[in-house]
Automatic annotation (TrEMBL):
<dbReference type="InterPro" id="IPR007357">
    <property type="entry name" value="PhrB-like"/>
</dbReference>
<dbReference type="InterPro" id="IPR036134">
    <property type="entry name" value="Crypto/Photolyase_FAD-like_sf"/>
</dbReference>
<dbReference type="InterPro" id="IPR052551">
    <property type="entry name" value="UV-DNA_repair_photolyase"/>
</dbReference>
<dbReference type="InterPro" id="IPR014729">
    <property type="entry name" value="Rossmann-like_a/b/a_fold"/>
</dbReference>
<protein>
    <submittedName>
        <fullName>Cryptochrome/photolyase family protein</fullName>
    </submittedName>
</protein>
<dbReference type="Pfam" id="PF04244">
    <property type="entry name" value="DPRP"/>
</dbReference>
Length: 510
């Protein structure tokens, strides 16, 4: 019996479970729809990436002999959502007698899909997404008897399971599981930078760029500057370029930031991986091989593999374990609205300006920008988690809720009742000064805590600890910070409080 096989915009993998299961008379449905393009105000590069990669992928499927029904954006007036697209496809193909898809990546859409069976009165089969090493069920089993979920323990199991960077005795290569401490060097400003591979848009991508410019006029970014990969072949090229040119230094400088160097030694491949153009096992094997060949040091290979099979799989597991309640958490009762400069980069704070400008230019900024600059600022100023998580979901080309929500709500905002992080990643200007050269190019003085021209991160940091002392004062990992705060003379504490309040009441002016 022929089936309707629905493939979503982040399922562009030839080895997708539903494609592996496909039969010759099945019909594949892919659709560019308003509901998916507007549930958040996606960056224009994210829209171009997804639509163009979808069109290229559909082309390949057709060339392989599959029957593909591809609905282009705005060409089908009755099709505004994935549900509408399915309804349209079933009218066009009344012979189809069931619906098949690989489980989707977001709770919101999963709820919509769950209604199809009743709505269309057809059996609906959903396959586990085996592009992840750990299935939702496996993660739930791992989590079942644990009071606390710590990435490190999960990661060790994933290393054993995948056998990546393990020696013959099933022990971690080099004797240690984690070389995180060797991933925190500041980067010398004159270190040679090799930019990530960019791709000249072909005719198909250019069509999409025009479409996005016409229909999404208010979204962040300039669609005409789009240069990302849109096929699996290009994405693999971009990744191999990273392995050959950047990976060796990725380990040391993973947390570093430099003025006007938005990419440093990062792979800029998360957006390809998250829509299925790259395969996580293939990437990890390439990195492991580079280490075995003596081309990259262990801290680089381990640091990269940890992000992929540790952190990435861990946050996905937690997302599915804890949704939908997870999204409603707001541990520190943060309520302040997001300042306008998150959309414009118009702020004098150099670190924020740099992190936001690269977001505007590339729908990308690296993890320290996200965690320790824009995220840290949002934490310290008690910005509303709904607004902050929606911003991250919108502006990054790699952002899908399963990965974005735990990273933002849990890791950056410490709003998830300490499920993801055991302490808030709060930091003063000192951290940013140590990890970047931004402060040398900033009108604020990173050495000043309060008074005219003081770096806002300083008073905000102490103000944050002071304001939340009831909830955070007992946290073992913050004892040193609280001791430092309590050692300050009362008069100084008062001046810091006042300065922090002044900033909090005029965030838009920073
Ligand atoms: C993100 C996105 C966008 C912008 N547009 C589409 C689309 O038009 N059609 C589609 O099938 N998928 C799109 N996606 C990806 C989906 O939103 C994604 O599958 C869900 O968010 C689940 O991860
Ligand atoms: Fe950021 Fe403060 Fe440094 Fe300016 S001085 S770049 S605001 S940390």
């Amino acid at each position: 019996m022929p089936r309707l096989v629905v493939i979503l915009g982040d399922q562009l993998s030839p080895a997708l479970a539903s494609l592996e299961a496909i039969a010759t008379d099945d019909v594949i449905l892919m659709a560019e729809v308003m509901a998916e393009a507007s549930y958040t105000k996606h960056h224009s590069h994210k829209l171009v990436l997804i639509f163009s990669a979808m069109r290229h992928f559909a082309d390949t499927l057709q060339q392989l002999g599959h029957q593909v029904l591809y609905l282009k954006f705005a060409e089908y007036p009755s099709v505004l959502s994935m549900t509408d697209a399915v309804a349209y496809a079933l009218t066009k193909h009344p012979e189809l007698s069931s619906i098949l898809l690989t489980e989707c990546g977001e709770y919101r859409l999963e709820q919509e899909i769950a209604r199809w069976q009743e709505q269309f009165n057809l059996p609906l089969e959903q396959l586990s997404d085996d592009r992840f090493l750990c299935s939702r069920q496996q993660f739930a089993n791992w989590a079942k008897d644990r009071q606390q979920f710590r990435m490190e323990y999960f990661y060790r199991e994933m290393r054993r399971y995948s056998r990546l960077l393990m020696n013959d005795k099933n022990q971690p290569e080099g004797g240690k599981w984690n070389y995180d401490k060797a991933n925190r060097k500041a980067c010398p400003p004159d270190l040679a930078q090799i930019p990530p591979l960019q791709f000249e848009p072909d005719a198909m991508t250019r069509d999409v760029m025009v479409l996005v410019e016409q229909h999404f006029t208010d979204n962040m970014g300039d669609a005409t500057t789009f240069r990302l990969a849109v096929t699996g072949k290009q994405a693999r090229q971009a990744f191999l370029h990273f392995v050959e040119q950047q990976l060796a230094q990725f380990g040391d400088y993973q947390d570093a930031m430099l003025l006007d160097q938005p990419f440093l030694f990062h792979s800029i491949c998360s957006m390809y991986l998250n829509i299925g153009l790259l395969d996580v096992r293939w990437m990890c094997l390439k990195v492991e091989q580079a280490y075995k060949d003596g081309k990259v040091p262990l801290n680089a290979a381990e640091g990269f593999i940890r992000q992929l099979i540790g952190w990435r799989e861990f946050v996905r597991g937690l997302y599915w374990l804890l949704m939908p309640e997870y999204k409603t958490r707001n541990t520190l009762a943060a309520q302040r609205p997001l300042p306008a400069f998150y959309w414009t980069a118009k702020t004098q704070m150099r670190c924020m300006q740099q992190a936001i400008q690269s977001t505007i230019d590339y729908a990308y900024s690296h993890h320290i920008h996200r965690l320790m600059v824009t995220g840290n600022f949002a934490l310290l100023t008690a910005l509303n988690p709904d607004e902050v998580t929606d911003w991250y979901l919108a502006v990054y080309a790699d952002a899908f809720e399963w990965v974005e929500l735990p990273n933002t709500l849990g890791m950056a905002l410490f709003a998830d009742d300490a499920v993801l992080a055991s302490k808030p990643y709060a930091a003063s200007g000192k951290y940013i000064q140590r990890m970047s050269n931004y402060c040398q190019h900033c009108p604020y003085d990173v050495k000043k805590i309060y008074g005219e021209g003081a770096c806002p991160f300083n008073a905000l940091y102490w103000g944050f600890l002071d304001r939340n002392s009831e909830q955070l004062g007992g946290n073992a990992r913050l004892q040193l910070a609280y001791q430092q705060w309590h050692k300050k003379p009362e008069q100084e504490q008062q001046a810091i409080r006042q300065h922090a309040d002044l900033i909090l009441n005029s965030l838009e002016k920073l």
